[in-house]
Design goal:
It contains five helices and eleven strands, in the order H-H-H-H-H-E-E-E-E-E-E-E-E-E-E-E. It is an alpha+beta fold. It folds into two domains: 107 residues, no CATH class; 88 residues, no CATH class. The strands form three sheets. Strands 4-7-8-3-5 form a five-stranded mixed beta sheet, with no helix packed on it. Strands 1-10-11 form a three-stranded antiparallel beta sheet, with no helix packed on it. A hairpin with a 5-residue loop joins strand 7 and strand 8.
């Protein structure tokens, strides 16, 4: 890898990758060698505006889509991997929970705290917004009936903060159950595509790209 590529790449990672101006700098890079492709892919995937928002990213990302369509190995970038920065393809129809929240465990019920706060043990009628956890969503796939029609997938629930208490809720089946109250409850719908690339910077999830 040429020295100009290394310098430009490290500078981009120093600014958490993806900065539009730094990605534009890819245009000044010399013709890429085979070993440069994985680094170009990582930089382009990290652009918040989209992996092909910069013209110079179109060729390496187009090559990536073609490689994935033909079940070829995902490209890697040794320079970035050494710092805990990399991209990992996977299958999950749900986006990651927003910062400060975590996925609600499967089958667990949660409700959003009101401005008045949570009062433990208070019964909540059927008008309350009760979310039921499905976990992280890993491994969940659309269910298709005999006619080939897929059923809507449930939403993924993310909760933030420590539990504030519990309330008794009336479920859709007409029975009473217990739900945990959180200061933040977020509902994430299933995405149209389950093919996703997780981009990590310093071993922490930075962004997700669906294709």
């Amino acid at each position: 890898m040429g020295s100009s590529v290394v310098v430009g790449f490290r500078r981009a990672f120093g600014k958490f990758l993806g900065t539009f101006g730094l990605l534009v700098a890819l245009g000044a890079m010399p013709a890429a060698h085979a070993s440069d492709w994985g680094c170009e892919v990582l930089l382009c995937l990290s652009n918040p505006a989209g992996p092909t928002a910069v013209a110079e990213c179109v060729p390496p990302i187009t090559q990536l889509w073609n490689a994935l369509a033909n079940f070829q190995p995902f490209p890697t970038c040794g320079l970035a991997s050494a710092t805990g920065s990399y991209a990992s393809p996977g299958m999950n129809y749900y986006n990651a929970c927003p910062a400060g929240t975590t996925a609600l465990a499967a089958g667990v019920m949660a409700v959003q705290a009101t401005s008045a706060g949570a009062v433990s043990g208070v019964a909540v009628d059927g008008l309350a917004v009760v979310q039921v956890g499905i976990g992280t969503g890993d491994g969940l796939l659309p269910q298709v009936d005999g006619g080939g029609i897929a059923s809507p997938m449930p939403a993924k629930t993310c909760v933030g903060g420590s539990p504030l208490g519990q309330v008794t809720v009336l479920t859709s089946s007409g029975t009473w159950s217990t739900a945990t109250v959180y200061s933040q409850v977020v509902s994430l719908p299933a995405q149209a595509s389950g093919s996703v690339i997780d981009v990590y910077v310093d071993s922490a999830l930075y962004s997700q790209v669906r294709y």
